[in-house]
Amino acid sequence: MSGGLLVAGTTSDAGKSVVTAGICRWLVRQGVKVAPFKAQNMSLNSFVTREGAEIGRAQAMQAQACRIEPTALMNPVLLKPGSDRSSQVVLMGKPVGELSARGYHGGRQEALLGTVLECLASLRSSYDAVICEGAGSPAEINLRRTDIVNMGIARNARLPVLVVGDIDRGGVFASFFGTVALLSREDQELVAGFLVNKFRGDVTLLEPGLDMLHGLTGRRTYGVLPFRHGLGIDEEDGMGVPPARGGTPARAKSRVGEESRASLQEAVRESEVTAPAGEDVLRVAVCAIPLMSNFTDVDALAAEPGVVVRFVDRPEELADADLVIIPGTRGTVRALEWLRERGLAKAVVRRAVDGRPVLGICGGFQILGERIEDEVESRHGVVDGLGILPVRVRFAHEKTLARPVGEALGEPVEGYEIHHGVADVVGGEPFLDGCRVGSVWGTHWHGSLESDGFRRAFLREVAAAAGRRFVPAAGTSFAALREEQLDRLGDLIEQHADTDALWRLIESGAPRGLPFLPPGVPA
């Protein structure tokens, strides 16, 4: 096999990331050397590759599905929102500046097309197949002229396009038809067909609609994937909590951290979690701060039997928590202000005074310190932190991107760092790169809780400080659970998609002679 495919979607959150990962895992199990690619990603969930490049976590997860190391080639452009109207632009893994949406789409994006195509060509020269993921919808006709991630990349690289639709939202047939009809003739030629995602019920009831869709568009449906809980791993623009083992997931969506009460209620719904006999359930409350980044840090906790993870935004929701986590954020000072406005800051300080466990990660660690000097991110100058940890933070223009290894609580730990803040620790006990005072811990290290031995040691400390009878399950392997999830994605493709037709599509491109749907838009 030698070829490629672009997985597009009728909307954001249609399932492009997980479908791409599923196709990658199915291919690698067939002996195909495959790599993922997303030209441009907008996400506050990012990862650091071994060469020190920052890319979207979704592409790192897809690389894991391919059983290869992620590299900057797989996500050459990453946009990290700082507000509704501006983002930090990360090019080839390094930040190059802050741009408004108008400034980016007004010219910068077109200039990046050459870099994007070079990265894709490099991957295609090294792998049998490259499975590309689009962004949003390919029918964003107001942005088509500067598009480098959907039809712009498909047309330049002559990639066949598979359009994914989330039927659980409703209106999937109209979305499929409208997506194709809004494209220019040249773009329509590359749209090979459709993939229905998140279907519930009897698929035979859907088949007449698929036949009619084929008659209307001349394009076939390559599969109907059933709804499955717990598969939204490493998402881009949402808050996601995986289920406790054997449970059902609690989920919520939010756009660049502007949480609504309704969406938070979705996250607060707990799965039924049963602790081992004679032991307590351990409850973890994660403060849903604005511009929350790398909330995937809590996935490993949520995967532990007997641990419940909730996202919260009111002080009373901390009352029954055994551990409170302040996660990373793209806006440390803004998040600190939000905690104070909500009354959460006082509740966290009271916990610390009472000796109840608190963990700050990256921006959350900075918030727990004494002072923040920020002339880079918020430009607010010197701001008082919560004063719980003996740490003073100064924001540097250069971003720290690293993959540290170390030891804490007698266990080996690996993590990754993505931050502008430089911490000067002036007291407390050492804890990774940060410190500990009593039952309050702080570190810049993301991903540290994925280290199984360290996570169990940390939970034992939390349980002791919280007065809980809780012993972490010795056999829980987060890496193994992640592999199981990726295999489930591969199983979905293998069992519910026409893999022979997919194989031909990846190898040979879009079928010739696909009909044109008027009216279309000019190229």
Would you summarize the structure shown here?
This protein has 523 residues and is an alpha/beta fold. Helix content is 31%, strand content 28%. The protein folds into two domains: 3-231 and 483-508, P-loop containing nucleotide triphosphate hydrolases (Rossmann fold, 3-Layer(aba) Sandwich); 246-475, Class I glutamine amidotransferase (GATase) domain (Rossmann fold), CATH 3.40.50.880.
List keywords for this structure.
Rossmann fold; 2 domains; 7-stranded mixed beta sheet; 523 residues; 29 strands; alpha/beta; 6-stranded parallel beta sheet
Provide structural commentary.
The chain has 523 residues and is an alpha/beta fold. The protein folds into two domains: 255 residues, 3-Layer(aba) Sandwich (Rossmann fold), CATH 3.40.50; 230 residues, 3-Layer(aba) Sandwich (Rossmann fold), CATH 3.40.50.880. 31% of the residues lie in helices and 28% in strands. The strands form eight sheets. It has a seven-stranded mixed sheet with strand order 17-15-18-20-29-28-27. It has a six-stranded parallel sheet with strand order 2-9-1-10-11-12, with helices on both faces. A four-stranded mixed sheet has the order 3-6-7-8. A hairpin with a 6-residue loop joins strand 21 and strand 22. The longest helix is centred in the last third of the chain and has 19 residues. 52% of the residues are buried.
